[in-house]
């Protein structure tokens, strides 16, 4: 046979494979996520968006939450039982089915390994999420607890606002705390706006965390806006109510100046493309973490110097303490129910700040009910006398004068 004819025959024989290769098939799973209690199972359907001219042998692959491909080394300690290969028959239109068995609490993702001579556009990529927990009722409990601490923290901003209105005075309420609180929630709101509303930042986040979702939800945005607004109203009361000569300390002013300088530098780096905008917003959010670390100290020191908690709302502390305890309880439940300690250890800074905040809450309660109980029991009939006494005995106020 002439060489030219052999080449033509060879090319013709590869046409079906080339056509098959050029077809952009896509694998799909139904449902796209599976939530199982330990010992349960669920039927999952998988198929191709178009028919094929040959039988297709689909091999399941597994990924962890860090987008790392994982292999089954110990079947007994794997989140689910290994799934057998699924065969898609030639010209098959309906999806095939397989059963996912919950084996151990955890969270994994499933996908399909690429198939020779067939172009499956989403092969070798995680497609379906499988979440295995110990108990469904614990999952419901963690949601309920989440709403409870959300409510406690939301309401916690009002007792101080109402107390100042009732007394027509901000004597005993530390101005450094008031100002730092406003700044902290301003930066927290900026961070939430970036991740919730700005497409570029969302895109950069998803590029780094392809298996994740943007961590800022609508309720986070509403909470931060609300916290900033109420904190601002509380701080503005300083301008209109009796303050006994108290002023914002020089230390606090210095901290504010440093925060402004830091923010300008961070924004310049972002604008010059030295850092991605996602990192820019991360760096700005650290201001909130820093303020959360220091903001309670001025109030605690002021109470100690005055030997009184008059003017500082204990209702705010009780609600903040309740929210903090519930928040940590939720993290513990999630860690146990999903066998994932990273829900506790994954963000050590936030965990540490939460514990520190609870520690300050306990300190304020000890000051209010144990150390300075007699001073805190002053009733409204002696309110004027209390203000005068505070002005006379408060070292910070004397210094300001």
UniProtKB/TrEMBL annotation:
Q: Does the keyword Membrane apply?
A: yes
Q: Where in the cell is it found?
A: Lysosome membrane
Q: Where is the signal peptide?
A: 1-21
Provide the GO MF annotations for this entry: L-cystine transmembrane transporter activity; symporter activity
The keyword Acyltransferase appears for this protein: no
Tell me where on the tree of life, at the top rank, the source sits: Eukaryota
| GO CC annotations, alphabetized | lysosomal membrane
Q: Which SMART domains match?
A: CTNS
Instruction: Please list every transmembrane segment annotated in the UniProt record, as residue ranges.
Output: 137-158, 178-201, 221-241, 253-274, 280-298, 310-336, 348-366
Q: What is its main location?
A: membrane
Q: Which InterPro entries match?
A: LC_transporter (IPR005282), PQ-loop_rpt (IPR006603)
State the membrane topology: Multi-pass membrane protein
From the UniProt record, list the reaction(s) this protein catalyses. Answer: L-cystine(out) + H(+)(out) = L-cystine(in) + H(+)(in)
Tell me which UniProt keywords the record has, alphabetically.
Lysosome, Membrane, Repeat, Signal, Symport, Transmembrane, Transmembrane helix, Transport
* Family from the record: Belongs to the cystinosin family.
NCBIfam families with a match to the protein in the record: 2A43
Query: Entry's PANTHER family?
Result: CYSTINOSIN (PTHR13131)
Any idea what this protein is called?
A: Cystinosin
* Organism listed in the record: Schistosoma mekongi
């Amino acid at each position: 046979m002439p060489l030219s004819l052999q080449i033509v025959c060879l090319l013709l024989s590869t046409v079906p494979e080339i056509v098959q290769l050029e077809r952009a098939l896509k694998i799909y799973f139904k449902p796209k996520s599976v939530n199982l209690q330990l010992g349960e199972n669920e039927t999952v359907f998988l198929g191709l968006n178009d028919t094929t001219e040959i039988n297709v042998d689909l091999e399941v692959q597994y990924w962890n939450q860090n987008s790392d491909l994982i292999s089954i080394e110990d079947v007994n300690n794997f989140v689910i039982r290994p799934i057998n290969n699924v065969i898609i028959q030639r010209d098959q239109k309906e999806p095939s089915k397989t059963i996912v068995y919950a084996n151990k609490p955890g969270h994994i993702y499933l996908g399909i390994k690429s198939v020779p001579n067939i172009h499956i556009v989403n092969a070798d990529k995680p497609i379906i999420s499988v979440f295995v927990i110990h108990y469904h009722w614990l999952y419901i409990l963690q949601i309920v607890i989440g709403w409870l601490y959300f409510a406690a923290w939301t309401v916690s901003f009002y007792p101080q606002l109402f107390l100042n209105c009732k007394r027509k005075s901000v004597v005993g309420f530390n101005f450094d705390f008031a100002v730092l609180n406003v700044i902290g929630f301003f930066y927290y709101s900026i961070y939430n706006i970036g991740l919730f509303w700005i497409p570029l930042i969302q895109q950069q986040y998803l590029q780094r965390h392809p298996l994740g979702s943007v961590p800022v939800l609508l309720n986070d945005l509403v909470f931060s806006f609300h916290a900033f607004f109420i904190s601002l109203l509380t701080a503005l009361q300083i301008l209109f109510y009796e303050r006994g000569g108290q002023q914002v300390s020089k230390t606090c002013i210095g901290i504010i100046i440093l925060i402004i300088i830091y923010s300008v530098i961070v924004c310049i780096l972002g604008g010059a493309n030295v850092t991605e905008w996602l990192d820019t917003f991360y760096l700005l959010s650290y201001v909130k973490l820093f303020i959360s670390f220091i903001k309670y100290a001025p109030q605690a020191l002021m109470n100690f110097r005055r030997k009184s908690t008059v003017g500082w709302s204990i209702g705010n502390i009780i609600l903040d303490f309740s929210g903090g305890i519930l928040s940590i309880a939720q993290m513990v439940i999630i860690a146990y129910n999903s066998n994932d300690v990273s829900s506790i250890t994954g963000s050590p800074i936030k965990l540490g700040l939460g514990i520190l905040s609870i520690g300050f809450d306990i300190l304020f309660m000890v000051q209010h009910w144990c150390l300075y109980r007699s001073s805190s029991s002053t009733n409204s009939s002696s309110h004027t006398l209390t203000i005068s006494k505070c002005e006379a005995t408060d070292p910070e106020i004397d210094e300001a004068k």
